[in-house]
Design goal:
The chain has nine helices and eleven strands. It is α/β, with parallel strands linked by helices. The strands form two sheets. Strands 5-4-3-2-1-6-10-11 form an eight-stranded parallel β-sheet, covered by helices on one side. Strands 7-9-8 form a three-stranded antiparallel β-sheet. Helix 6 packs parallel to helix 8. The radius of gyration is 19 Å and the shape is globular. The protein starts with 16 loop residues before the first strand and ends with a helix. The relative contact order is 0.17. The model has no long low-confidence stretch (mean pLDDT 90).
């Protein structure tokens, strides 16, 4: 397929709710929920390309996915893909994406021009970029498609599992160079920041810690904030995500309870929702 134009998708998903799916370890807890919502006509599912196969193999409909890696080895995420397998899913890529990766995708594709590239080629439309692929898919949902709300899934921005994985199992292609696999699992410098919510099942001291207060006769009583183990890079990613949420003005939720707190994204428990319409009904009742 030749690349399609961003303009063809501008504002086409007003009234819809976008599930913006990243590759954090908590994604494994949301697979059944995503499968449930993939049959909801009011839901749009957008993911980072490295989890496309994982979602498809689980029977989850993927409307869009995005890759922005500049190195050719990342084309391994599409190993074995056929037109029949990818179906109507649309591959999004910025101009910096490796040509080998773009060429390997056998289905429909859209080039997401940032403002500088758009000016260079004379495009009328552009999309904000970001520090990570998750920023790109958020911008596609909120800025281009104009979805009414966005739900972040697998957006841990922290190390939420005691087993130590940095990304959900099944999202690291076998065809990557070993050095890239090693870097993918690098936890970087440790930092501790506020956790999204206390509702989730905290998985041990290796991932979370609480501030405590000793009271006479009462033992150790938890008070204050719950913190999650993260990294300075992830904190920067979170801060930019907060800026994008404010700038684009789209109601945003976070489905990862154990991850780094996204300040402008209210927590939502997807297992308690049967349809995305239930979420909009809850918003109305609050108002």
């Amino acid at each position: 397929h030749p690349a399609l134009r961003m303009e063809d998708y501008a504002g086409t998903r007003k009234g819809k709710t976008a599930f913006v799916v990243s590759a954090g370890p908590s994604l494994k807890h949301e697979m059944d929920n995503l499968k449930k919502f993939s049959s909801d006509p009011d839901a749009i599912i957008i993911c980072v390309s490295r989890v496309f196969k994982k979602l498809k193999d689980y029977g989850i409909r993927v409307d869009y996915h995005l890759n922005c890696e500049m190195f050719a080895w990342d084309a391994a995420i599409f190993d074995g893909f056929t037109k029949e397998f990818v179906g109507d899913s649309i591959f999004l890529f910025p101009p910096v994406c490796a040509p080998e990766t773009v060429a390997k995708w056998p289905g429909k594709k859209v080039c997401t021009f940032d403002i500088n590239a758009a000016e260079l080629v004379g495009n009328r439309m552009s999309m904000m970029a970001g520090n990570s692929v998750s920023h790109h898919i958020y911008n596609w949902a909120a800025q281009i498609l104009k979805c009414d709300r966005v739900i972040l899934v697998g957006q841990d921005l922290s190390y939420t599992e005691p087993t130590g994985e940095t990304h959900v199992a099944g999202s690291t292609p076998a065809g990557w160079p070993q050095a890239s696999k090693d870097d993918d699992g690098n936890k970087q410098n440790e930092a501790w920041e506020e956790c999204q919510t206390q509702e989730g099942p905290f998985n041990g001291e290796t991932c979370h810690r609480m501030e405590v207060l000793m009271e006479a006769g009462a033992g150790i009583v938890p008070v204050g904030l719950v913190h999650v183990r993260t990294s300075p890079a992830y904190v920067c990613f979170r801060d930019l995500l907060d800026i994008l949420i404010k700038r684009l003005g789209v109601k945003t939720y976070n489905a990862c309870p154990n991850g780094l707190k996204v300040n402008r994204a209210e927590y939502v428990n997807l297992s308690k929702l049967e349809r995305v319409a239930d979420l909009s009904a809850a918003e109305c009742s609050v108002k």
